[in-house]
Hints:
Elements: H1 3-14, E1 17-23, H2 30-40, H3 48-55, H4 65-75, H5 82-98, E2 101-108, H6 110-115, H7 121-139, E3 142-150, H8 155-167, E4 173-179, H9 191-199, E5 203-208, H10 215-222, E6 228-231, H11 239-248, E7 251-254, H12 256-261, H13 273-278, E8 282-285, H14 290-293, H15 297-307, H16 312-324, H17 330-343
Parallel strand pairs: 1-2, 2-3, 3-4, 4-5, 5-6, 6-7, 7-8
Bound molecules: hypoxanthine (HPA) and zinc ion.
Zinc ion (ZN) binds near residues 21, 23, 230 and 288.
Amino acid sequence: MSDRATARLTNYRALPKVELHRHLEGTLRLDTMLDIARQHGITIPEDVLRLSNLVQMQEEEKYSFQNFLSKFNTLRLFYRSPEAIHRITREAIEDAAKDNVRYLELRFTPVALSRAERFPLHDVFDWVLTSARDAAKEFGIIVRLIASVNRHESKELAEQVAWVAAENQERGLIGMDLAGNEAEFKSEPFYGVFKEARQAGLRITIHAGEWGPAANVKEAIEELGAERIGHGVRVLEDDYITRLARERGMAFEVCVTSNFQSGVVPALEAHPLNQMLDRGLNVTLNTDDPSISRITLSHEYHVACDDLGVPMNTLKERILAAAQAAFLPEKERGELVSQVKKDLKF
Length: 346
Ligand code: HPA
Ligand code: ZN
């Protein structure tokens, strides 16, 4: 990186940040993976470069959602003990805090974390929530958790996740998310689960309009009760649905680099972030999977401003918009918004 690029990144690092869309399974440090592999006898390449090929997008590989999602096959091998889950959660929060993220909604996939060792779901929730609470205190950052379910899993498993999530609302578990392969799996089997989750008080965000069409955004809003949309960039393909989303003030959790690396857009410069802003959509900027993409939220702010030409003032408005879209109770959300406003010198 040139000196100028480094200096610019330092400016973005100094901004107070709000992250609404980050997957725990996409935040593992390479060194930590190697340590855990050694401790638990997991057979993976022992040198960092070869491991990187398996868990991070490489410049020379085809940028497709299949390649992007394939990284999780290796990333899910590391949840071998409560200690490993504790370390991964703590480091994810430490890394966010170091990047000056003030408020983090971290999502995790309980079924994926429980699978390697057949841990009971409620233990997985307990370990992640306890580690997140302690790390938030240690690193001075506000953290809330969202439970993700994948489209390719059964609705029965999703129901179990929703049950345990609902029981943990007092411990920082605030929402549910539908993730995974949107191109090949439908949301319909999950309508009932998300309705129950909503009724239990959980907040809802849905990956939609990323690898699937604009109609999936409408479905997420109307059938799954989404209050925010993960990605949603393909909403622009439909004028009516774009207007619907704008009128409802739906927050979009946009992740520019992830969209490029997973084949949603053919080049970073082709990302429709500016069109979304021009259409009055409530855009927020997020990382998705910082370790897979080798990015930070500061880097994403830099891409938005320096590669896509978003003005600094608009970036600040979008940080504030993210605080306003936080899944926090009214009073806490108001406090977060006031604090972010003050720190951004608005
Ligand atoms: N889309 C769907 N599922 C995911 C993603 C994504 O971008 N990242 C991690 N799981
Ligand atoms: Zn995501």
